[in-house]
Every structure is written in structure tokens, then in C-alpha cells.
Amino acid sequence: MNIFKRLFKIGEANAHSAIDSLEDPIKLTEQGIRDMKKDLDASLHSLAEVKAMAIRSRNEHQSYLNKVKDYESKAVALLNRAERGDMSVDEADRLASQALVKKKENEEHAQRSQADRERFDKSVAQLEANVRELRHNISKWENELKTLRARVKVSTATKKLNKQLAQIDSSSTVAMLERMKDKAAQEEALAESYGEIANESKSVDDEIDKALKDSPASQASDDLAALKARLNRNKGTDL
Amino acid sequence: MGLFDFFKKKEEEPSYDPTNLKLIDLREGFILDYDMQSWEVVKAFEYDWGNDYFTLELRLDNGTDSLHLAVDDNDGMELTLTKDVKVRHLDEDLPEYIVEHETAPKKLVYEGTVYYLDEESAGYCKEITAPDNAWQELINWDYYDKTEKKHLSVTQWGDREFECAVGRVAKEFEFSNIIPGKG
């Protein structure tokens, strides 16, 4: 395989892969069912046309049969007239034989229309079988679609749940809560750092004053000195 | 489906569901089964009775016989199946009576059955495929017998043109196997 063929194959494979990922099974099944309904509609149109032709051939057949009867009764009437002497026998025979020719013609037409009708009836039976098959397939796929919809719903819900449980979805609630926890920890660390910086920025005198002021020992010695001074003063008063 | 099928001109979707065809979907060229025979819809008419009230009338032909099927789907399905009758056969004085009184009589008798006037309606009618300016004005009188199973209608078109049809009330289940024609 030359290099261009291989490159083309790679491109082809990637294009197929991209299209595969775009295929939504529900939408494509719905489209498939719509296409089958179009096929059914076309088959029904053909069936209607053939049935209409069968109806017309029945009509034709009936009208030819009526004509056959009509020409026969005309031939009989002509012969009766000749018999009664209302017209010449030759003329009656001539017209009666013409009527019989017409009768024969119409018999042939009646036979043809009968054959047409039988042929149309056969076609109707065949088309009806096709229509039944298409209807069956449409109904089968409509049921499949219902199942498919349910399966997709269940799998989507399960996928979402599993993603949440596995905490791999950055947009999930768990991930958000984790982010919030991190943020709070960051705030605490920041507050602590500011506290440390504030302590470091005090002067040496401040520290000494604070140490002296806050020391419990120095407070105690102050208190002791005050007590001693008070006792000495009392002594002086007693003397 | 090929990739380029997407760019093909989209065919017009039919107004009916081919898997579930109903009487109200019937149009010229459609076929349906009734009384163990196939009938072709040779004409389809719509009637406008005002206030958005429309009904459908179909002329059915099975090759040897013709029928009118009236479909009223406004308040539950109401169907009547009738055959044309010459007005003079029904009542030879009927046209004169209607012209003189400007309404039809309250009772009519045909082949021994007494029909009672049920409703007088004025409206417009046209073939479904005809343009909107083809509407024709009409007045219709509907009659039923005592059992309300037999039906008779008298229709006046213009000043002195009358049509009459006699038949019966039909049920939806009597019709089956509706097949769409070219329409």
C-alpha cells in the first residue's frame, strides 16, 4: 500500500469514527420509521391504483355483458319482426347477423375485461402481502423504538449516577463541594498567614511592653510592693 | 441512506398516517372496503355550514353501484350512506312546495317509510380540490324515520335545482381497509 493510500485510509477511518460518534440511535430509528412509512404510503398508492383498475374492469365487464344481452335481444326482435311480416326476411337476417357480430365482439370484450380483472385481483393480492409486511415491520420498529427510548433513559441516568459516585465529573455536585472545601482551607491558611505577618511587624519596644504588661509574674511583684508600702505606712501611724 | 440524500428536495409529507387511515382522511382516488367489496372515492366534497363547522361527503363507486358517504366528525363520528333518488319519485310536488313555502315539508313518505324533518341547514359546498372561489350555496333538509336509522335528505341548489338522497345511518366499523390514492 503506498503512502497516499495509507493516508487516505487514516482520513477515512477518522471520518467514519467522527460520524459514528454523531449518530443518535433514537433519532436515526425515528428517521428509519419515517422512511418506512413513506415506502408504505407509496405501496398503498400503487395498491389503490390497481384496486381502482379492478373496480373499473368490473364496471366494463358488466357493461359488455349488458351489451351482449342487448344485441341478442335485438337479433331476436328482428327475427320476430320478419316472422310477423313486419319486415323482409333478408333485411331481418342481415341486421340480425350484424347484431350477432356485435354481440360476439362484446363477448370478447367481456372476456378480456374479465381476464383483466383476474389479473388485477392477483396483483392486489401480491401488493397486499407487501403492505402487510411493511406494516408489520413498522409496528415492530415502533415497539423497538419504545424499548430503545427506555434503555437510553436508564443508561443516561445510570451514567450520571456513576459519574457522581466516581467523582470524575468536574461539573458534578461532589466536585463543586470539594472545590468549596479547598477554597475554605485556602481562606483559613490565608488568615493564618496574615496573622503571622501582623505579629512580625511589631517593634521591639512594643514586644517588651507587651511582655511586661502581660506577664503574670510582674503583676504579682507590683501587687507585693504595693502591699509592703501600705504596711509600712500603717506602722508609722501606730508609732 | 446516502450522504447526498440529505440535499434532495424534501417531499411533501402526507396529511394522514399511512399506518392508521381514518374515514376523515378519505379523498378522491382513495379505496375502502364496505359490504365485502372495494369502493373507489370518485369525488370528495367539503361543506361549510358556518362557525367553523365543516363536513365531508364522498361519492363511492364499486364498478356497478354508486353511494354517497357523508362524514361528520365534529361531535363524534356521524355517518350516513345514501343513494340518489329523483325528487319527483319522492314527491312530485316537492319542488313547488319548497319554492312556495321557502322551506321543506315536516314529513315525507318514501317507499312506505315516513321521514320526519330533523334539521334545516344553509351552507356552502365545493369539491375539495377546487379553488376557494368555487363554493356553491345550498340549503339542506335532513329527515329521519322514527327509528332514526333511515335517513333522507333534500338539497336545494340555486332557485329551482333539487337533489334527493335516501339511505341509512352507518357505523364506522362497517368501513375498513382504507388505502390512499393519488388524491
From TrEMBL, chain A:
This protein's name: PspA/IM30 family protein
Biased composition (Basic and acidic residues): 202-213
Keywords: Coiled coil
Coiled coil: 110-158
A Pfam family this chain is assigned to: PspA_IM30
Similarity section: Belongs to the PspA/Vipp/IM30 family.
Region described as Disordered: 196-224
Organism whose genome encodes this protein: Fulvitalea axinellae
Domain of life of the organism encoding this protein: Bacteria
Annotated TM spans: none
InterPro entries named among the record's database cross-references: PspA_VIPP1 (IPR007157)
Automatic annotation (TrEMBL), chain B:
Pfam families, per the entry: DUF4178 (PF13785)
Domain DUF4178: 29-169
Entry superkingdom: Bacteria
Matching InterPro entries: DUF4178
Protein name, as recorded: DUF4178 domain-containing protein
